[in-house]
Amino acid sequence: MNKIQSASDLYQWREQIRSRQNLEDGVVYVCGGTGCQALGCQKVKEAFEKELAKLKRGRKIVLKSTGCPGLCEKGPLVTLHPQDLFYQKVKPEDVPRIVAETILQGKVIEDLLLEDPADRRKILSSREVPFYRPQMRLLLGNNEFIDPTRIGDYVAMGGYQALAETLLRMKPEEVISEIKASGLRGRGGAGYPTGQKWENCRRAAGEPKYIVCNCDEGDPGAFMDRSLLEGNPHSILEGMLIGAYAIGASRGFIYVRHEYPLALQHAEIAISQAREAGLLGKNILGTGLEFDVETAQGGGAFVCGESTALIASIEGRTGEPWSKQIHTVAQGLWGKPTNINNVETWANVPLILQKGSQWFSTLGTDGSKGTKIFSLVGKVKNTGLVEVPMGTTLREIIYDIGGGPQDGKRIKAVQTGGPSGGCIPASLFHLPVDYESLSQAGSMMGSGGMIVMDEGTCMVDVAKYFVHFLEEESCGKCLPCREGLRRMGQILDGISEGKGDSETLPLLEELAAVVADASLCGLGKTAPNPVLSALRYFREEFEEHLVHQRCPAGVCHSLVRYSISPEACTGCGACQKICPAGAIKGEKEEPHHIEAELCTKCGSCMEVCPTRAVLVC
Amino acid sequence: MDIRTVDGIVEKYQGKRTALISMLHDIQNQYHHLPEKALRRVALRLKMDFTDIYGVATFYKSFSLTPKGKHSLTLCLGTACHVRGGPKILREVKKLTGIGPGQTTPDRQFSLEVVNCLGVCAIGPVVVMDGKIHGEMTVGKVRRMIGKLKAKESGGRA
Questions:
Q1: Is the ipTM of this complex over 0.90?
Q2: Are A313 and A345 members of one domain?
Q3: I need a labelling partner for A97 at 20 to 30 A (CA). Which of A23, A106, A393, B153 fits?
């Protein structure tokens, strides 16, 4: 590959790729994201390779392994062009049929189509998928059609054009004004205005300056950053290049958590391809801009998503935060000015420069502009990544896009903001999602995890889960966080076993206030949120555990009991066969029962019962 | 343990201190844990104090100073996997292997880890067996999975 030395080189290259792409005969897009890989997409791709090789010469069907469009639950996903067909849950044995019938004869294979859960209508094109339809997929949209390991795919779609135009037409200060005018706020959770952060870093004294892309997406239940970096890594690099120009930075890091091996691999491939093309290094596009990026890997520590801990980790030290009296934009990596933005924030940058701040600021609400990606998971029908304009209501996301509850249960809350956020009850689902509304409700935007909870979720268990999570992830440097969380965890353990009295909940609240006030970094300061929001909206569930020794959701292990409903049981014997403790008694075709003293409460009888006769309370 | 292997890993990252965590990951992939000798070698090559390397090796949860088992079992207990029944799976795995998170069976066959989210929440609960992700896990499925591996291992020895 020749080095791209000017903007016209870039345009020429793009035209060259487009003319050589040869996509007219057809393209098979197989999702290669982590979710689909877990469901066996690699074998599907291999089967396509084999079948397509058998086709006659002269007909060239292109096979592309793409990034994650976010509908992981229905994977492996296959999209066919020019037929514009979307097949889901594709198995390797389906591939010969797809090639013979759809690709060669243009026939639709009904049983591979997705079904609209509302009216059982079969859906042909990915654009009609009910899960995607209400979305505005500005950032995620290209994931479906780009092979993330090929820079050419990104360039052919107009990639790096925003960079070229920015470098040629704008001064760094103008770029900063443009980002400020767009109203873009940090997508990592806190929502700090991005343009302001860039300006602070540009003005800070010290050379060299660094920029960092934070892909330490530690919030459990959130995977939008994984999907973006894995599925479209060049868009992140382009955003970082524009940021580097605006801020005056010469080096950048992409910090990827250890749990995302594919995202790391794709980031590394993208960096080396961009370097080879001359889009990283010296004199980028002939403009004299010098900038290079390398990756840094995490080691399984949640606290490293915090900016100062992240810096310590990149420097090769233990990831302990320090007091933020001096911000990282002034003194970050090796004491030099460092601008850290989250993956999704960087992904927005090329878009803003390309379409203009004015366009961007028309999306969203007064205080929160643009779109936001949420990962909608938990007890909801359709799970996956959802990109919607800020200000969309929780109800629209959970019911219109997510399709509402699973198995006819009642949804009672949604958890947003990860371990720093809180649970929002169903009575507040009319709230729009923006930074302010969510924090007023006692939660926060966070990085965008949205975990739906139904009547089978116990709020004591959820509060306990987050406190133990943070207790384990606390770095231990400051006492309020280290000891306070441990004590809160002990109290919650007690509640989940029905132990405690009238003093227990007030004590928990008092302790939570101390941890929030006295902790050093964001981890500890926000740690009590999940507990306080659960107490605020679901206090009666806590009291039920304490006063009546009952877990209404049937979750808290030491309070639950399994039983079989004699009316619903058909005596099929499936539970008896699977029970490892031999606790289920009863004759064939007669109602069975569980002997409580033998039962280990493993729950496998409930999993296998075809008539849902196994009850837990 | 071969000093040259460790040197090779250090050189792969041009001896940069910023790559320390990546180096430790590579060493762990090679030896299934971080042997003390390897850590001492890294300290020497990076001109760092051994105590600092030890600090990093013990701070980050991905690293282990004791040898791991032949098969690695990783359970995701992120929020989405948690509300979908992850703890039930963990209880079952503990019962089947007799070990808890962070431990290795005495016969060095299995190591159990728990992580907080692998980002494949849409198909939770998720279990990773020897690097391969298995989604939509149930107590029954995990029992079969471990049973199969155990049978294979005891068959191999017989």
A1: no
A2: yes
A3: A23
